[in-house]
């Protein structure tokens, strides 16, 4: 085997072994905070989206597959015994917003839009608010009401 053929095979091998890493890095799912508790709406239209333990441990519950749709739940910074629940899909480019405990707002990682805890736009380019949900704790479960 000559040098050119050998280097060609080394290059192909490097590309083939790097592809899974590149695909994983480009993935938009965040499994560290994504909670996949799925339940059907109750008669009062509340749906279990996670546990109090998850909320306490992670500081948030991100459930992309709840019966109400994607939901992000955090404790209300103004009243820690209350919850804030929003649809985390940014209305501008459909990215999933992140909760930033300081400065107490939801931030879109794609373009920097910022949203208050009530879902209203603080800083654009987004021009529509995040959808909000009623949320509560019942026993060890965090529930969100479908609208």
Would you mind describing this structure in some detail?
This protein has 147 residues and is α+β, with helices and mostly antiparallel strands. It is built from two helices and ten strands; from the N terminus they run αβαβββββββββ. The strands form two sheets. Strands 1-10-9-4-3-2 form a six-stranded antiparallel sheet. Strands 5-6-7-8 form a four-stranded antiparallel sheet, with no helix packed on it. A hairpin with a 2-residue loop joins strand 2 (61-66) and strand 3 (69-76). The termini are far apart.
Helix content: 10-25%
Write down the overall mean pLDDT.
Answer: 80
N-C termini distance: 68 Å
How many runs of DSSP E, i.e. beta strands? 10
Structural class: alpha+beta
- SSE order in H/E notation? HEHEEEEEEEEE
Radius of gyration: 20 Å
Low-confidence parts lasting 5 or more residues at pLDDT below 50?
22-37
Biggest sheet architecture: 6 strands, antiparallel
């Amino acid at each position: 085997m000559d040098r050119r053929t050998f280097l060609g095979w080394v290059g192909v091998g490097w590309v083939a072994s790097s592809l899974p890493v590149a695909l994983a890095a480009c993935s938009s799912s965040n499994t560290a905070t994504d909670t996949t508790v799925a339940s059907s709406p109750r008669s009062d239209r509340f749906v279990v989206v996670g546990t109090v333990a998850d909320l306490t441990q992670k500081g948030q519950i991100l459930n992309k597959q709840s019966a109400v749709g994607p939901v992000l739940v955090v404790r209300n910074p103004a009243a820690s015994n209350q919850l804030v629940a929003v649809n985390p899909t940014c209305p501008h480019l459909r990215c999933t917003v992140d909760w930033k405990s300081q400065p107490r707002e939801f931030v879109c990682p794609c373009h920097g839009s910022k949203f208050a805890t009530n879902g209203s736009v603080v800083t654009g380019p987004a021009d529509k608010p995040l959808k909000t949900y009623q949320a509560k704790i019942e026993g060890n479960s965090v529930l969100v009401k479908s609208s």
